[in-house]
Amino acid sequence: MSVQELEKERAPKQAAFGLVGWLRWGWRTLTSMRTALILLFLLALGSVPGSLVPQRGVEPDKVARIYEQNPTLAEWYDRFQLFEVFTSTWFAAVYLLLFTSLIGCIIPRTATYVRELRRKPPAAPQNLSRLPHFASFESDLEVEETARRLRKLRFRVVTGDGWVSAEKGYLRETGNLFFHIALLGILLAIAAGSLFGYRGNVLVVEGDGFANTVAAYDRYIPGSQVSAESLEPFSLQLADFKVAYQVAGDKKGQALDYTAHLKVNDSPDAPARDFDLKVNTPLEVNGTQTYLIGNGYAPVFKVTDGKGQVAFEGAVPCLIEDKATMTSGCVVKAPDAQPEQLGFLLRFLPTSVPLTDGTYASAFPGSLNPEVRLEGAFTGDLGLRSGKPQSVYELAPPELMKKLKPLVMGTHVPKPLAAGQSIDLPEGAGKLEFVGVKEWITLQIAYDPGRMPALVFSGTAVVAIALSLMIRRRRVFVRVKEGPDGGRVDVGGLTRTEGSAAGFAEEFADIVKVLSAGEKHVR
Predict the structure, then answer these.
(1) What is the CATH number of the domain that holds 514?
(2) H or E stretch at 60
(3) What domain count does the chain have?
(4) Whether residue 201 is found in the same domain as residue 281
(5) For the whole model, what pTM was predicted?
(6) Does position 410 have pLDDT exceeding 60, yes or no?
């Protein structure tokens, strides 16, 4: 055997890490403060798309508009769950990892904190002049009097034979620990809201109402522990909706204020009360909050079929196409029309003005000159009886419908209809009448039992981090020496917090003044 082989054989072999070793390494890494901060940053970063991309639970109309205007982009958004950020798989994974990391941080920190509270300040060193802060003065001050003066300054004091040891600033560790506990409390409050809370969206047209039942929601997202009986039994009716717009200047057309005048019944037996719902003034009924999150126009149409019967009459909520002018696309469906079902594509212009090319457009978002432009009329099967879900903003597939001539887009565009006007359909198919204009609002109804606890824990976190950053851990040592020419007192001090020595110098000077009160020759 060669020398190299012999040395290689005798060399100590590194032990295999093993499964247990990897698990311990993973747990230490997950529960480290660095990992917790990284996860907290990722959680904040993951919340950004939830603010920039419309969420299905809050703005379903904007989500529908993205699907209509850019289907490819909408598909990618949906693939990465960007329309439902706060309920997505990846957001929940970061949330749970942060939750676990905080628990792993808090448990050892709590044990350390308890030990620190029980630990007494150490005995004073023999040579206090070696400490960062030192002073000495002649005095007959005794140990007990020195301890009393330091206790008056709110120090924790320990005495010995000719020495006094004092420590202060334990609230720094208290703030640090409570900050982490508050973060954990915020996560628990959010979890409680997800389990026991619910939220939903509903569109309400002027003159219509809403009762807080599952069937009345357009979109309903309950927590896993919520049942239909958990909903607060209130109801409301939209009496009127007003929007104030800027009428002049560079910001002409900008919305200034939204006000929805509601009639609210807090319970089935309660009398109705008036309430003005605004964007920043939600309606609250026993912890359930109702927010105003959107608005638009709902023109009223009347459809008469080929047999002279009224096949449809009512307000039709329209999908906003241009927010600046509130130009909206409308779809009217008359499934009861005879001999064939009727469908219409229309464009609502709140303030209609003629253009030089003979077309019409809206010049202002307010309803100053409302008109409806008929884009196309169709007959055939609307597909409402097929059992397949269908958007109220879309007609049936083209193969099921036939365009009525000469209302084919590009061949002849009739003059827009003003309120009270009607247009006769070709081939004796019937008549469409524009009756008037109403407005619609979208509401978000939410019950979140973790809302107030989250607010309390957030306030606690702010106070705790302030304590952690502002308070310094510091120690003061005093040695009382007797001599033939009188006594001498040596005072030394140091901080246990990095970067706070400069701030402690002034406080140390004040401590020396208190201890040497009435004495002379302080140096």
Answers:
(1) 3.30.310.80
(2) helix 60-69
(3) 4
(4) yes
(5) 0.69
(6) no
